[in-house]
Write a structure and sequence with these properties.
9 helices, 4 domains, 6-stranded antiparallel beta sheet, 13 strands, alpha+beta, Beta-Lactamase, 5-stranded mixed beta sheet
């Protein structure tokens, strides 16, 4: 994978941005920690010098200058780590190696002293000592100091550790950004290859799903889109074949009727042939109108007209309109719709859906059957059913009855185009509902329910 592609990915740029923000935050925190540590170290350093000075002042108060001189001589030759100096009122050295520099002393008695007659070689760098200058009661001056490099050594160690930490952070952050970019490009390439295979006509390809991140959610959404497109393409191919098959017969009938009318010896016979041709043309137009309506519903063009509705109320009105026809055919039409069925939708389409379900039940059942329309609300939505105790549909055909132009074997002898239940399925899907056909024991039960309720 070319390195330049890794550096141009959004994930790498985002990783660099977070790395820059983290580094800036770490530097600010490091500066604060350094200042705080330095202040604490200097305070501890000064406390040791002050504690030593107080001890020598106590010795001076107990034994005078002579005793203080002896103590300084003894301690100065030891390994306590401090340097000492004792000056008289004129600044003449009485004991120790510390002297007050020309720069003077601050208001608290602190200065940067230096040693004289030290053991260091002449070419060595002079040692800087932080020194506390304390005047004594007899006019003399006590000097106690310690090497400044002790503080510098500790602080240099702190800076070195912090520098290594920042360098490690930058290295790991950059490596992590490159790794994330490689993973990102790998998944993007997978999506790109899938898209190319789809464009080449292989609609069985889908984007692999890995993990549970945003890219996986995006891939899942695209896969659902591809499923939908594949379904529409298959439906389009099926519809084209079905139209060619199912319309051939009526169009051939129109042609035969017109030819017969052209050579008919009598006007009445010609008129009868023309009327038959017109009826066949009306049937063809009815089929095309149904197909156009299904296409409009599947395109979602009517979703903008959705309003809060009660499906139970709509169903009761449709049942009331179909009751006379059911009674004339000797069939019993019953509505069990006491509870409201709230639904956001298009009233005209829902009326069409219920009417198609009732028309299907009335058309394909014999006299004396019982057709029941029922519904109930659920925590997830609604369940609406139309059930009859007629001959029913074979189990292997219960899914196919919602396809365009499909007609079960038992229904091929009755009028119809095979588009009624296809329109029902399209309207249901537009409203976020699903359709399922099942055995009513005996008969057929068609259930229209909110997603997850129909199973």
């Amino acid at each position: 994978m070319p390195q330049i592609r890794l550096l141009r990915t959004a994930s790498f740029r985002l990783a660099l941005l977070y790395l820059a923000l983290f580094t800036a935050s770490a530097l600010a925190l490091g500066a604060f920690v350094y200042v705080s540590v330095r202040r604490e170290i200097i305070a501890d350093f000064d406390d040791r010098i002050i504690e030593e000075t107080d001890a020598l002042k106590a010795d001076f108060a107990a034994g005078g200058r002579q005793k203080l001189t002896e103590i300084i001589a003894i301690r100065g030759s030891g390994s306590a780590g401090f340097s000492y100096g004792l000056l008289d009122a004129d600044g003449k050295a009485l004991a120790g190696v510390l002297r007050v520099p020309p720069s003077g002393v601050d208001s608290r008695g602190w200065t940067e002293g230096k040693e004289v007659d030290g053991d260091e070689p002449a070419e060595s760098r002079p040692e800087v000592l932080r020194t506390l200058v304390t005047p004594l009661g007899d006019g003399s001056t006590l000097l106690v100091g310690d090497e400044q490099r002790r503080i510098d050594t500790i602080l240099d160690g702190v800076l070195a550790a912090f520098g290594w930490a920042v360098a490690a952070t930058l290295a790991l952050g950059t490596a992590g950004g490159l790794w994330l970019s490689a993973q990102f490009l790998k998944r993007i390439d997978s999506m790109r290859m899938t898209a190319r295979r789809l464009m080449d006509g292989d609609w069985t390809r889908r984007i692999p799903l890995t993990g549970a991140d945003d890219l996986t959610a995006l891939a899942r959404t695209f896969n659902r889109l591809f499923d939908r497109i594949e379904k529409l393409l298959q439906a389009n191919r099926q519809v084209s074949a079905d139209i060619a098959h199912d319309l051939r017969k009526p169009l051939a009938g129109v042609l035969r009727s017109l030819e017969a009318a052209r050579v008919a010896p009598a006007p009445d016979a010609a008129r009868a042939m023309i009327e038959k041709a017109a009826a066949d043309v009306e049937g063809v137009l009815e089929t095309f109108n149904a197909l156009l309506r299904i296409g409009q519903v599947e395109a979602g063009a009517r979703r903008a007209a959705f309003r809060p509705l009660d499906l139970a109320e709509i169903a009761r009105e449709v049942v009331e309109a179909f009751a006379p026809a059911a009674e004339d055919e000797g069939k019993q039409l019953i509505a069990r719709l006491a509870a409201p069925l709230p639904l956001a939708g298009d009233r005209e389409l829902l009326v069409q859906m219920i009417a198609n379900l009732l028309d299907n039940a009335l058309r394909h059942t014999p006299s004396g059957v019982r057709i029941e329309v029922a519904g109930e609300p659920t925590p997830e939505g609604i369940i609406f059913t139309v059930a009859d105790d007629g001959p029913g549909v074979a189990p292997e055909q219960r899914t196919a009855i919602f396809n365009r132009f499909f007609r079960a074997d038992e229904a091929k002898g009755t009028p119809g185009t095979g588009l009624g239940l296809a329109l029902v399925a399209a309207i249901a899907e537009l409203h976020g509902l699903s359709c399922r056909a099942s055995d009513n024991g005996p008969g057929l039960r068609i259930t229209v329910a909110s997603a997850g309720e129909a199973d």
